[in-house]
Specification:
By secondary structure, the protein is α+β, with helices and mostly antiparallel strands. The protein is built from 6 helices and 11 strands.
Length: 254
């Protein structure tokens, strides 16, 4: 009799555990989307845009393209997102609020779900051989400083373009460099942890007078080596890209 009661008790405990796990799974599934999210067309014609990503549960982007949203959602640099040209020309304002208690690390899968719901995005990953730059440590060694939360950056007023990243990993820096380099940049430094980066370089469209000025910064590739102690080596390698098979040009209603 005692053995039977013990067996029944164990079965009841198992059912309770299963029920609790099921409820936990349901709660997790429900928290995979934004609590509130809006995507509106931006017809301002402005060249400026701003995308802060997800910080403290708030998502904000102004005058951004669907390509930018895809980059952030799937973790690809611009040149590694393959799709129709309008992905980079049509502009939108994006705002969202994550459910209470959902960490910012859940941002990417949440944004993927949102883009599938509003733009009916269908995409797949594949490997393609493309011209790239391998980012390696230059012969003189790195010149970047390890990230220090107490370090202050003051008086930065560049005469040219700038990449400012006070706390960045090397894979993240490689992604940031892609636009200026003109092809995907692949981190091959082997460096771990975060670094503080201030990279100042001459913009490509600079006039002859700007280039000849006494305080003119170096070109991008020279700046990377002189200021960061890194080097970009041209290669052709198979890399993973995101191919957009389908996306609606206009989002569904909020």
């Amino acid at each position: 009799m005692a053995a039977r009661l013990a067996s029944d008790a164990r079965q009841v405990c198992v059912r309770i555990v299963i029920a609790v796990l099921a409820l936990a799974g349901l709660a997790l599934a429900q928290s995979s989307g934004f609590e509130v999210a809006t995507i509106k067309v931006n017809d301002s014609g402005s060249g400026g845009s701003n995308f802060s990503g997800l910080r403290n549960g708030i998502l904000a982007g102004r005058n951004i393209s669907l390509k930018t949203m895809l980059q952030e959602a799937f973790g690809f640099s611009p040149l590694r997102v393959i799709g129709p040209a309008w992905l980079d020309t049509s502009r939108f304002d994006l705002a969202g609020k994550a459910p209470q208690g959902v960490p910012d690390t859940e941002f990417m899968p949440m944004l993927q779900v949102l883009l599938k719901e509003r733009f009916h995005v269908e995409a797949h990953r594949e490997t393609r051989e493309m011209p790239v730059y391998d980012m390696v440590i230059a012969s003189g060694g790195i010149k970047m400083l390890p990230y220090d939360p107490t370090r202050k950056f003051e008086g930065i007023n560049p005469h040219g373009n700038m990449i400012f990243a006070p706390a960045v990993t090397m894979p993240e820096l490689a992604t940031r460099m892609t636009g200026s380099a003109g092809r995907p940049v692949i981190d091959k430094t082997g460096l771990e942890g975060k670094y503080s980066v201030v990279l100042i370089f001459m913009r490509l469209e600079a006039t002859a007078a700007e280039t000849a000025a006494a305080d003119a910064p170096p070109d991008f590739f020279t700046a990377v080596q002189q200021q960061l102690g890194l080097k970009l080596e041209p290669k052709k390698e198979p890399i993973e890209v995101l191919v957009v098979d389908h996306a609606d040009r206009m989002p569904t209603e909020n």
